[in-house]
Amino acid sequence: MQEINIYQSENQIVRDAIDRIIIQVYTRKREKNHKSFLITGCSAGCGTTNTAINMSVALANAGWKTVLVDCDIRKGMEYKRLNRQISSGLSDYLFGKTKDTIYKTNIEMLDYIPCGNDTQSPVRILATKEMEKLDKELKENYDFVIYDFPSIEVVPDAEIFIPVVDDVILVAAMNETTNSQLVNAKAKIKKEGKYMGVIVNKIEISEYKHYVRDFDYFRADKLRKLYKHKMKNM
Asked: By C-alpha distance, which of 152, 135, 153 is closest to 144?
């Protein structure tokens, strides 16, 4: 089976932000033995997939055996960069068309399950005993299972699977996701008691520094300036 090339963010600020999320995910595992996390957006195009990928890569780089599951079945594999030239995936496995659905990636400790070819009935695909059985098997074989779902405010797919996973993380986009979308999405998750928090994407640096003070403190050029200033005042 071919190896999937997973792209990693080279932006240190993004990596540091992801690390803050990973700390919370790891805490859930340590305190409650939670392993499976459903990532879904509050609105369309808010960066859910990028968030799920970056989280999965970070967990794998930390030495945890991780699998990323693409549950955005409606879009189809031909429209996804990771799924190009892949012959089968999640929907094919659940319909019994293939036994091989887990792909190795270029990231050590990280595996990947693509969405599959059947895009006609994602609700019926995800609401099967086979899907619950797969989730159980993944939890037995991996330290972390990350499910990438389409926006819960656009389609109901994520709502089907919320009772199965351990925690749900929302993704919103600054100045794009509306307050009503965020409130509605949280309400759908909170009724199941699985709400972990919300990740806000597409924040400008000028805005980000208001939320995370000294986020760039350890940046090399800033450290050099601080060191020079300190030496001058000694």
From this structure: 135
Total tally of structural domains belonging to the chain: 1
- For residue 220, tell me if it sits in a domain: no
Q: Is 174 part of a structural domain of the chain? A: yes
pTM of the model: 0.84
Question: How many angstroms separate the CA atoms of 32 and 214, rounded?
Answer: 31
CA 132/CA 136 separation, integer angstroms: 6
Rounded CA separation 126/129 (Å): 9
Residue 48, pLDDT above cutoff 90: yes
Query: Does residue 6 lie within any of the structural domains?
Result: no
Residue with tokens 């001058």: 232
> What letters, b where the CB count within 10 A reaches 16 and e where it falls short, cover 69-88?
bbbbbbeebeebebbeebeb
